[in-house]
Amino acid sequence: MLDTRYQVETPEGIDLALRPAGLVPRALAFTIDLLIRGVILGVVYLVLGFLGQFGMGLATIILFLVTWWYMVLFEVLNQGRSPGKQMLGLRVVHDDGTPIGWPASLTRNLLRFVDLLPFAYTLGIISCLSNRAFKRLGDIAAGTLVVYRDQPIERPNLPEAEALRAPIVLDFAEQRAMLAFAERGESLSTARRAELAAILAEPLHVDPEHAERHINGIARGLLGPT
Amino acid sequence: MKQSLFEARHQAQWQAFNTHLQRLEAGNADAEKSRSFAADYRRLCQHLALARERGYSNHLIDELQQLALRGHQQFYRHRSAIGPQLIGFILAGFPRLVREEWRLVTLASLLFFGSLAVMGTLVYLFPDLVYSVMDPDRVSEMELMYDPDTTRLGRFGERDSGDDWMMFGYYIMNNIGIAFQTFASGLLFGVGSLFFLLFNGLMIGAVAGYLTQLGYSETFWSFVIGHGAFELTAIALAGAAGLKLGWALLAPGRLRRGEALRLAAVRAIRLLGGAALFLLIAAFIEAYWSSMTFATPHIKYAVGAGLWALVLAYLCLAGREQHAPD
After folding, report:
1. Are residues B59 and B208 in the same domain?
2. Number of domains in chain A
3. Same domain flag for B123 and B32
4. B23: pLDDT strictly greater than 60
5. Alpha helices in A111-224 (DSSP H)
6. How many domains in chain B?
7. Please, are residues B228 and B304 in contact by the beta-carbon 8 Å criterion?
8. Searching chain B, which residue's CA lies closest to the CA of residue A183?
9. What is the per-residue DSSP string for B271-305?
10. Do the beta carbons of residue B206 and residue B121 sit within 8 Å?
11. B326 lies in a domain?
C-alpha cells in the first residue's frame, strides 16, 4: 500500500518499475518553469517594445507560444523534461513507460486549464493527492505519468569475509535479504548493522557478536567466487 | 549458476549495450550499429528475468532493470500524429473525424449558432438587451469600431498604416485561447464547454444584433463574414471536442471512467488540433483581408460566402474516398 512504484509489463514479459513523483517535487518543478517563463516574457517585452506595433504583435504571438506551448515543446523535444522537471530529476512518460508524444503532451498541457480551477491548482491538487500514481486531471485524460529519472547506480563494495555455506536452507527471498544486507552495509552504522545481524544469530546458530561476519560470509558464498 | 559467474560472463555485453544507449539518448548513434539493438535489448530482458528468477542480489537486478527501462524508452514509441501525417490529417483525417463525431458537432453547433441567432434577433428587436451581457463602455467601444466613417475596421480601428502584425498576434492569442478554454473546461463533465459555447454565442449574437439595428450592418457584416467562416466553425468544433471529454465521463459505457476519458481524449485532441488550424487561418484572414477597406462590401460578401461554402464543403466532402494508405 505504501509502495508507490508503478509496474509496467513489457512485451518481453518483464516488469519495469516506474517511480511516480508526488505533489511537492511537481509543484516545485512547475514553480521553476513559471519563473523561467516570466523571465522570458519580461525580456521579450523589453526588447520588442522598441520595435513599435510590429514588435507588440510579435510579442503577443510569443506570449501565446509561451503560455500554451512552452511545456509541450520541451516535453516532446527534450525527452519529457521541461527545464523545471530537468532540475528536479523528473520526466513525463506515457502510462506504458514509452516517451511522451505530441498528442498526449498537448492533451495534458491544454487540460492544465481545468486543473487550475477554481483557483491555484485546486482540482489538480485534489486529483494528484487522491490518485495512486499522483496524476492530475490532465494526466488521467492524456494517459501520462510524471516519474523520477533513474540515477546511475554505484557499485557497492561487499565487505571482505570468508565464503560460507548457510547452515539452513534459504529460500530466494531469504537469499536476497542476505545479499541486500551485505550490499547495504556501507550505508548503515556499525551499531545498526550489529543490531540487524543479531536478529539472525539464533537461526544461524552463532553468537550475536559474530552474526554480522557470518551473514557477510553467507552473502559471499551466495555471490560465488569473484 | 552463481551470481559472480553470471556477471563475469555477461558484463561486457551490458557495458556495450550501455554505451550504445548513451549514444542513442544523445541522438548520434549510427544506423549500422543499431541493427543489433533489438536482439541486444531482448537478451538484456532475458538476463533481467533470469536474475530475478535466480534470486540474485538487488544491486544487479536494479542495474539490469535500469538498462531495460532505458532500452524500452528507445525501442518503443507511440506514433506521433504530427509531422508526415499532418498532410494526411488536413486532407482527409480531420473532416472524416468531424463526420464521425457528427452527433457532438451538431449539438455544439446548435448550442453556439442557436444562442447566437436567438440573442441576435432579440437584441435587434429590443436593443437595450445588449446591456444585460455587456457593460456600456464595451458597447460604445464596439460602436466606435464599426462606425461606417472609419477607413480601417476591426478591433484596432485607429491603427496607423499597416501594422497588421499586431492584430494578427492579438487574434491568435485571443481566439485560440478561447477555443482552448472551451475545450479544456469540457473535462468538468461537459459543463464548461456548454457554458463557453452559450456565453460566446450570446456575446457575439448581442454585438451582431445591436450593430445591425444601429444601421452599421454593412461595415460589421462585411468585416466578419470572411473570417467568421473559420472562426465560428472552429469554436463550435472546439466545443464539440470538450463535450466529448465530458460525455466520456458521464456515460463511459463498459469502460472505467478513467479509461473512457483517455480514449475520448485521443480523438478530442485531434478535433481540437483541426480547430486550432482553422483559427490560425481565421486570424490571418481577419488581419490581412477583413480589415481592408479597398474592397467594396459586395466583394467581401461574395468572398465571405465563398469561404463559408468552402468550409462546409471541406467538412462534408473531403476525404470521402480512400486513397493510398495514409
Report:
1. no
2. 2
3. no
4. yes
5. 112-115, 122-130, 137-142, 172-184, 190-199, 211-223
6. 2
7. yes
8. B59
9. HHHHHHHHHHHHHHHIIIIIT-SSS-HHHHHHHHH
10. no
11. no
Examine residue B325 and state whether it is found in any structural domain, yes or no. Answer: no
The parent domain of residue B46 ranges over 3-75
- Cell numbers describing residue A170: 534459504
Choosing among B72, B156, B159, which should be mutated to test the A contact, i.e. which has the most A CBs within 10 A? B72
In a domain, A48, yes or no: yes
Is B273 in CB contact (< 8 Å) with chain A? yes
The answer to the question of residue B105 being in a domain is yes
Q: Is the pLDDT of residue A58 over 90?
A: no
Determine, for residues A223 and B63 on separate chains, whether the beta-carbon distance falls below 8 Å: no
How is residue A94 written as a grid cell?
A: 506515457
d(CA B289, CA B283): 10
Q: What is the mean pLDDT of residues B304-322?
A: 86
Spatial contact of B112 and B195, defined as CB atoms under 8 Å apart: no
Is A125 found in the same domain as A181?
A: no
pLDDT attached to residue B160: 47
User: Complex ipTM, two decimals?
Assistant: 0.81
- And the C-alpha cell for B228? 467568421
Of chain B residues 145-174, which have a CB less than 8 A from chain A? 159-160, 163-170, 172-173
Domain that holds residue A45: 18-148
Asked if A68 and A34 sit in the same domain, the reply is: yes
Q: Which amino acid is at B134?
A: M
**Are residues B304 and B265 located together in one domain of the fold?**
yes
Residue B292 has pLDDT above 90, yes or no: no
